[in-house]
Design goal:
Pyruvate-ferredoxin Oxidoreductase, domain 3; globular; oxidoreductase; Pyrv/ketoisovalerate_OxRed_cat; Pyruvate/ketoisovalerate oxidoreductase catalytic domain-containing protein; 2-oxoglutarate_synth_KorC
Length: about 200
């Protein structure tokens, strides 16, 4: 069991990374985890990727950490700017064609997950962010009903069809996350559930 896990999402502007961060932070906190997140936005004109780090811990945390335990790659060229934060224990999750060959040399644990293909199965690429949210929720073995409730709340103003599609997307991602069997476990603190997330 780990005391602290650092998740980094790296992708282009407009891929819904902020939505993943908002949903996952609330769900992790409501599941009894201490959570801290930070976002780095790069200039789209310069071709930069945006990154969000979400730390999950058994104790209170108030800063980012340099290492990456789980890297979610959502687009091409999403790794090079943060490669100095990778370790031999880093798990890189993403579509095979988004992960450059130099990272497939055996130094890192690569998990080929075609997030955009899963999103298309639900209906459209727009669901990639919710697939990602489900994927990470499955990795942390969060209660599926809690996840579905968060999706329903988040998309309640969008209508039943969009909400239902997002629920289907989160379930698809969740099942894929469980399938990976990464064994990520962080000790929970039930008192966290009653605290306010800032």
């Amino acid at each position: 069991m780990k005391n602290d896990v650092s998740i980094v999402l790296s992708g282009e502007a407009g891929q819904g990374i902020r939505t993943v961060e908002l949903l996952l932070n609330k769900t992790l906190k409501n599941s009894g985890y201490n959570v801290f997140s930070t976002t780095e936005l790069m200039s789209r004109v310069r071709g930069g990727n945006n990154t969000t780090e979400i730390r999950v811990s058994n104790k209170r945390i108030e800063a980012y950490i340099d290492k990456i335990d789980i890297l979610i790659v959502l687009s091409k060229n999403a790794i090079f700017r943060i490669e100095n934060r990778l370790t031999r224990d880093t798990i890189i999750i993403g579509q095979d064609n988004f992960i450059e060959e130099k990272y497939k040399n055996g130094h890192y644990k690569i998990k080929d997950v075609a997030i955009s293909s899963l999103a298309k199965e639900v209906g459209d690429l727009i669901y990639s962010n919710v697939i990602t949210y489900g994927l990470l929720s499955g990795i942390f073995d969060i209660n599926l009903n809690l996840i579905k409730e968060s999706i329903t709340r988040h998309f309640s103003t969008k209508g039943k069809e969009i909400t239902d599609n997002n629920i289907n997307a989160v379930i698809k991602g969740y099942e894929k996350g469980k399938e990976l069997k990464l064994g990520i476990q962080v000790e929970k603190d039930e008192k966290i559930k009653n605290q306010v997330l800032l």
